[in-house]
Design brief:
This protein is an all-alpha fold. Helices cover about 50% and strands about 0% of the residues.
Length: about 270
Amino acid sequence: MNNLKGHLVLIGVAIVGVALILVAILLPPSEVPLPPDDEQASAQTSEGQDPTSERTPPAEPRAEAIDEPAHVRLLRAASAGDTGTIDGLLAMGVDVDSRASQADVDAVASPQLEVDATALMLAARDGNEPTVRTLLEAGADPNARSASGMTALMHAAQQGQTDVVVSLLGAGADPAMQTQEGRTALMLAARSGAHQPASLLLEAGADPDQTDADGATALMHAAGAQQLEAILVLLGGGADVQAVDDRGRGAIDRAGESGPVADMLREAAGG
C-alpha cells in the first residue's frame, strides 16, 4: 500500500513538471523593443524626433572658391616668377600692362599691391630678372607708373636688383622719372645703399644733382642714411657736395657732426 502511494506521488510530480514545460513552450515570448535601424533613425530625425540626447550639428557647407580675375593672376605670377603662368595668361589675351585697382589692393594680402601697379613693377621689385625679361619681351611698358609715381626701375634700384636695373635700362627705362614726392631711381638707390644700381643709373645719364620736392639730391639722401659706398659712387659721378635743400641744409648737415660719412663729405667739400 505504501509503495503504491509512493509511485502515485512520483507520477504526480512528473505530470506537473511536464505541464510546466508545455506552458513555457506554448506561451508567446515577451515583446522586447529593439533599437531602430539606420533608416528608422533617419526617419525619426527628419520628423524632429532625435533618437539621442545629444547630436553633433551638421558641418557648414563650404563656399566654392571664386576664381580671381586674370589680371590679378598675372600680378601674382609676376611676383612669384612664374613665367609659365605669365605666358599662358598673355596667350589668352590678358594685357601685359594690366594695373591693380583699389579693389585688388584691398582683396589681395600677398603680394602687396599698389594702385596702378603692373606685373613688371612687381617682378622688378621682387628681383626676378628672367620674369622681367619675359614681360619686357611681351611689350611691357618700362616707364609705366603706379599711383604714387613708382616705376619698375625705381623698385629695382631701391631693392638693389642690379641685373633687373640693367634689363630695364636696356629696354628704355627713364632714370629721370620722379615719384609724386619728386624722388628718382637714383635717390632711392642712394638712400637704400644700393651703390651698384646707383653707378649704373649714373652711367645711363641720371643727373646726380636732380632734386626732389624738398630740394634734396641723391647725395643728401645717401648722407642722411649714412650710406658710405653710395656716397663714394655719387661723388665719383660728379654730385655737388655744396648743394643745399629748400631749408638750406646740405649733405654735410644731414651726415651729422662726426663719423666716416661726415668726414668724407667735409673732405670732398675742401674742409
